[in-house]
Amino acid sequence: MESQIEKIFQNVLEGEDEEIKANVQAALEAGLEPSAILNEGMIAAMAEVGRLFENGEFFVPEMLIAGRAMQSGLNVLKPHLLEGDAPSKGKVVIGTVKGDLHDIGKNLVALMLEGAGFEIIDLGTDVTPEAFVEAAKENNAELVGLSALLTTTMAAMETTVAALREAGLPQAVKIMVGGAPVTQAYAEEIGADGFAPDASRAVTLAQSLL
């Protein structure tokens, strides 16, 4: 008989929104530690989703569906994750740069990072450099993620990196960039700390930067 945690793991992999809510609730009622449900059930499942994606067995739709299921489970679990019970891996401010309204890639990265235990402050799309700076300050973010899908909005990425560097933030913020037209060379050219070609590798990058 599979354990509650295994059921939750499978719910994430198979993108089962409703089932995961019931299984998380049942796991809590059975007295399982919220941090174990999170780490062994959801975070482990999202790591497996990332592995399947890198191996070409999962594609963007499967990742989005798994991420949404994880989010549903997390909504049930969050009130039980007491402060200190499951420490955040770090705070990440994320958004699509000014002039760009595309958010699928950014949403996917946010879901995967949340799935890996990071605290996410999602600013949405068409975000000004000032808004990124403000959010990084207000939240004491350790990491800022910038996304752009159009070559025409890549310039806004450069402006945003410059604004974050010049803002004199009290903490050294790491900046990672991504999106279809973005490359490692461009990331280096504009002074970002890292580039990830997809959501799964964005998690690995975030972990290595912090």
Layout of helices and strands:
Layout: H1 4-14, H2 17-29, H3 34-54, H4 60-77, E1 91-96, H5 104-115, E2 119-122, H6 129-139, E3 143-147, H7 154-166, E4 174-178, H8 184-189, E5 194-195, H9 199-209
Parallel strand pairs: 1-2, 1-3, 3-4, 4-5
Helix pairs in contact: 1-2, 1-3, 1-4, 2-4, 3-4, 4-5, 5-9, 6-7
Q: Could you please describe the fold and organization of this structure?
A:
55% of the residues lie in helices and 10% in strands. It has 210 residues and is α/β, with parallel strands linked by helices. Strands 2-1-3-4-5 form a five-stranded parallel beta sheet, with helices on both faces. Helix 2 (17-29) packs parallel to helix 4, helix 4 (60-77) packs across helix 5 (104-115) and helix 5 (104-115) packs across helix 9 (199-209). The mean pLDDT is 92.
Task: Give a short synopsis of this structure.
The protein has 210 residues and is α/β, with parallel strands linked by helices.
Radius of gyration computed on alpha carbons: 17 Å
Q: Say how many strands there are.
A: 5
The largest sheet is: 5 strands, parallel
* Alpha-beta classification: alpha/beta
Keywords:
210 residues, alpha/beta, five-stranded parallel β-sheet, 55% helix
